[in-house]
Amino acid sequence: MPDSPQQDVPLGDKRGRVRIGFLLSQLGAHATELFADQTRGLGISPSEAGVIRIIGRSPGISQRELAGRLGSVQSRVVALIDRLEGAGLVTRTRSSADRRVQELRLTESGTSVLRSLRHSAEAQEAAIVEGLTAEQTAELFGLLVKLSSLRGLDTEVHVGYRAP
After folding, report:
1. Strands, E, within the chain: which ranges?
2. CB count in 10 Å sphere of residue 135
3. What is the DSSP letter of 20?
4. Which stretches in the chain have pLDDT values below 50?
């Protein structure tokens, strides 16, 4: 590891092999561990945190819409919502327009957890980019967004929700 964030890092290992995928995987695992530690402290799982975030951004979203957004099977979403409702973080109400539809909203407790998640995400991001300058952080972010876009990835939803 370089002594200073400004020092150039050679592209490749001792044999000259480029290992971008490996390094991204390592950093992804590190970021996952940091986030799991943060959510564990709030009494929820990372998957539940993601669902809380989406419901907070889209109050009244239906379970079906949520499953579609997550790219997950509905039965998995129902189980997640059951846990969140049982914990008093989410409510389900029948839609006045279509009684077959369950609309999801955060409770006061759920909104409080969402605020805590925002602080946790900021702390996680600071830990991940620690040692980089503001310019390097902005460059890294821009490159990651570009790579995600080129591959058709949703930068708001983690691929871990995808149905197997």
Report:
1. 61-62, 90-94, 102-106
2. 9
3. H
4. 1-7, 163-164
